[in-house]
Amino acid sequence: MIFFLYGHDSYRSKEKLEQIKTKFKNEIDEKGFNIITLTGDDFDLEKFNSAAVQSGFLTSKRLIIVKNLLLSKPNKDLADQLLELLKKLKATENIFIFYEAGLPDKRSAMFKFLNKDKKLSQIFEALTGKALTDWLKKYVQDQGGQIQISALNLLIASIGNDLWQLTNELNKLIAFKNQEEIKEQDVREFVSVKITENVFGLTEAIAAGNRPQALKLLDEQLKSGLNEIYLLTMIVRQFRIVAQLKSLLSQNLSPAQVTQASGLHPYVVKKTLPLAKKFPAAKIQTIYQKLAELDKQFKSTSLPPETLMDLLIMEI
């Protein structure tokens, strides 16, 4: 049995991965001795083959997880050998999970093979609109909290649809309110202003090429408790907004028209417009592309994320 989990929404795909692991522990291997995890950046075919052909220790099965192999873009020889091996392993008792925290190249033979069985393959698209709102409402309820719909809408407007960020901020709000209903003012005070101001300052320093200030602000954000992936996603979103507003400004629209056309929250537009006016579109696009490349490196290299972010700032 070969599961294939992939897609941009790594929060829900990770949840699914954990569900399969939990089921395996509950039904087959309580201690988890027979769960083996390999990663794409240091994938070794011999190690995989050794783990795959053996039966479990004191059980009939093993659970073998391979993370981000396709995103790491293995060479053709390795991919071809692994593909032939997987065709033989489909009939074994062992369970395999190929997990990709993103969207791999759909044209590859490996992707087509893993995605063939739709009962075992699942894509996790980023949630939007009503689906996103409904998911978040249920999340708050499951955590024992309450939230006004206007507060939830403002949270989405301030952060976007990244579930890692949204759940992180919701957890803080739920703990702060202690079972009381989360209101719009709570979001404004504890989420919108704090995150937008912090990330805005870092974004401006990066765009201006002010390396000492950017490194200083980055260090402050990491020390405050924000993890690297969370912070990178926020910076990428900020530059995406800057690029969007820059494009709208080129059409000679008024600030009010820019706000309406962008679909962004007025507060976000107000804070970001000066930055969009200040820097050339080409520079913004170059930085945005470098950030997108950094996001891929996070998922395919063994270097610490903080080191990768420091190197990026030094390159810009």
From TrEMBL:
Keywords: DNA replication, DNA-directed DNA polymerase, Nucleotidyltransferase, Transferase. Residues 4-120 form the DNA polymerase III delta N-terminal domain. Residues 197-315 form the DNA polymerase III delta subunit-like C-terminal domain. One of its GO terms (cellular component) is DNA polymerase III complex. SUPFAM superfamilies: P-loop containing nucleoside triphosphate hydrolases, post-AAA+ oligomerization domain-like. One of its GO terms (biological process) is DNA-templated DNA replication. InterPro entries: DNA_pol3_clamp-load_cplx_C, DNA_pol3_delta-like_C, DNA_pol3_delta_N, DNA_polIII_delta, P-loop_NTPase. It is an enzyme of class 2 (transferase). Its EC number is 2.7.7.7. It catalyses: DNA(n) + a 2'-deoxyribonucleoside 5'-triphosphate = DNA(n+1) + diphosphate. GO terms for molecular function: DNA binding; DNA-directed DNA polymerase activity. NCBIfam families: holA. Belongs to the DNA polymerase HolA subunit family. This is DNA polymerase III subunit delta. The lineage of its organism: Bacteria, Candidatus Komeiliibacteriota. The gene is holA.
